[in-house]
Write a structure and sequence with these properties.
Helix content is 78%, strand content 0%. The protein is an all-alpha fold. It starts with 6 loop residues before the first helix and ends with a helix.
Length: 186
């Protein structure tokens, strides 16, 4: 017949169970602190306040058990704010912090697409400036303004440019979403 447990033994088992649960909760709270800090590092990278070396230094100060979750949080935050203007910066930080073959390949693919988009944007700007410039020069020449008084025209306010920029950013956003999916698909 099995020995019956005394009240003391039962109390000790329960306190041990509660202690384990408490330690687990404290560990999760501690980890959340580092995850939150890593997200702040991601935002700082996007704002240009910190470089990839500074991020690595900060993350190396985190406890070993919190680093993986912190790295994922950083990557999530940095890639969430990724667009055509900050792609090289984000890709450099990603490959610097997570240097594996899959990540390098994903970053290389996005970098190729990024370069293609930059060329397309430059071509579109040149085309719009030429077309708009020609029309504006003709209009101003008709009013008697010509020569050195004419300078290049800013196309950023044109509806055609705004439409093209929005379209390119939406297309690029889809590329970034695919990159994020590949980056976080472990």
């Amino acid at each position: 017949m099995e020995k019956m447990k005394s009240a003391l033994e039962i109390a000790l088992e329960r306190s041990k169970s509660l202690d384990n649960n408490l330690q687990k909760e404290v560990g999760e709270v501690e980890q959340q602190k580092y995850v939150k800090a890593a997200r702040a590092l991601g935002r700082s990278l996007l704002q240009g306040k910190i470089n990839k070396e500074g991020i690595r230094e900060s993350m190396l100060r985190y406890p070993q058990e919190s680093r993986e979750a912190a790295l994922k949080a950083f990557l999530d935050e940095a890639t969430k704010g990724m667009d055509v203007t900050n792609t090289p910066l984000v890709l450099q930080a990603v490959t610097f912090l997570k240097d594996d073959a899959k990540t390098r390949q994903a970053c290389a693919e996005v970098e190729k697409i990024y370069r293609r988009y930059i060329l397309e944007i430059k071509e579109r700007v040149t085309e719009l400036q030429e077309n708009t410039g020609k029309l504006m020069r003709e209009k101003l020449a008709g009013e008697g303004i010509k020569g050195s008084a004419l300078v290049g025209f800013n196309i950023k306010h044109l509806g055609q440019w705004k439409e093209a920029a929005v379209r390119l950013q939406e297309e690029y956003g889809k590329i970034v979403q695919g990159f994020r999916a590949e980056l976080f698909n472990d």
